[in-house]
UniProtKB/TrEMBL annotation:
Pfam families: URO-D
Protein name per the record: Uroporphyrinogen decarboxylase
Domain called Uroporphyrinogen decarboxylase (URO-D): residue spans: 7-341
Keyword Lyase: yes
Record keywords, A-Z: Lyase
Its EC number(s): 4.1.1.37
Gene3D superfamilies, sorted: 3.20.20.210
InterPro entries reported in the protein's UniProt record: Methanogen_methyltrans (IPR052024), UROD/MetE-like_sf (IPR038071), Uroporphyrinogen_deCOase (IPR000257)
GO MF term (any one): uroporphyrinogen decarboxylase activity
Length: 360
């Protein structure tokens, strides 16, 4: 398959301006799979900004996708505020102990300094290296966990769920502290030359109701997005799971692009909010990207393109969430190659012909 005719920045700039492009933007959300590209253990990435940058740059150069996302796990901000994170030798980290176990301990918490606390300085170092090395050709983003999700990592998801019903004032105090860390980190990310990329899985309708989203997540998310916009940056927002009931609120919060999980429908998103924001997604990370064949991936990409290529605000081909660490490289190549073969401009007739060919 021929390589690209435009750099990612050239492609996205032209696409944003309605000018000709060679293909749709494509972002297989490569997280810790990048460790495999340079042959290191996943646990090595959070400990070295140089190694993390090397891995993500190498992955970008190998596959040729359109956005680099500096990311190891979702817990960096909470860890910087006192939560304990466990780092398995060769798998993604997970939360071991929240910073507090009871809301009476909230005064122990202080907003994090991203230049000093936890692993955040290492993440920032990786972002700076990536911007300096490849930032003129590809956008470099820094993963930023949303305020409500970060709050859940500070006290534990079960405790937070109970407090939402029993002590809403305490939840707001916790979310406000969480937001202060988010704002500090967003400022640091932008000052380095990156764009924050927001992930807020605990705000999913799979976990909290749309009403609770409006009360406990939306106001802090909006304040964070308003700040990022004030610095001249666009915002991509990913919320895992079922999100159809909060798409309007995600748009109201100011998201410029929403990343759609494979549990949601691109067609429905296009109909509901496609005139307000760009869509991104939603090839299944495990069932298709990890376990599928090259043929499976081509058809999944084509299906997503068929649903959303004519979205009024545009469409980015992407996985529905971060790729599993062991995703085969050939499958990532297959996603990019499918997008390249589809090309641009796109017509229904062309998609039909490709479907006939790829289904054989």
């Amino acid at each position: 398959m021929a390589r690209d005719q435009m750099t990612p920045i050239e492609r996205l700039t032209a696409y944003n301006q309605g000018n000709p492009i060679d293909r749709l933007p494509c972002v297989p959300i490569v997280g810790n799979t990048a460790a495999r590209v340079i042959g290191v253990k996943v646990s090595e990435l959070p400990t070295s900004g140089k190694l993390l940058a090397q891995a993500q740059i190498a992955a970008y150069r190998q596959f040729g996708y359109d956005i680099i996302r500096i990311f190891t796990d979702l817990y960096g901000q909470a860890e910087a505020m006192g939560s304990v994170v466990y780092y398995p030798e060769d798998e993604t980290a997970y939360l071991d102990k929240p910073a507090i176990t009871d809301i009476s301990q909230i005064d122990r918490l202080k907003p994090a300094d991203p230049y000093k606390d936890g692993h955040l300085p290492i993440q920032l170092e990786a972002m700076k290296i990536a911007v300096d090395e490849v930032g003129k050709e590809v956008s470099v983003t820094g993963a930023l966990t949303g305020p409500f999700t970060n709050a859940s990592f500070l006290i534990g998801a079960e405790n937070l769920a109970r407090l939402v019903g029993k002590n809403p004032d305490a939840v707001h105090r916790l979310c406000r502290l969480s937001l202060e860390t988010c704002l500090n980190y967003a400022k640091a990310i932008i000052d380095i030359g990156c764009t924050p990329s927001l992930t807020d899985p605990m705000s999913s309708s799979t976990i909290i109701s749309p009403q609770k989203f409006k009360e406990f997540s939306f106001p802090y998310l909006k304040e964070l997005i308003d700040y990022i916009h004030s610095r001249g940056k666009g915002v991509t927002l990913h919320i895992c799971g079922k999100t159809a009931k909060v798409w309007e609120q995600m748009a109201d919060a100011g998201a410029d692009c929403i990343s759609i999980d494979n549990a949601a429908s691109l067609t429905e998103a296009k109909e509901k909010v496609g005139s307000r924001l760009r869509l991104m997604g939603n090839v299944k990370p495990s069932e298709i990207m990890l376990q599928g064949t090259v043929a499976d991936i081509r058809l999944a990409v084509l299906s997503g393109v068929r649903e959303a290529y004519n979205n009024p605000k545009g469409y980015i081909v992407a996985s529905g969430c971060s790729l599993p660490t062991e995703t085969p490289f050939v499958n990532i190549d297959a996603m990019l190659d499918a997008v390249r073969e589809i090309g641009y401009p796109i017509t229904g007739e062309k998609l039909n012909l490709l479907e006939q060919r790829w289904s054989k």
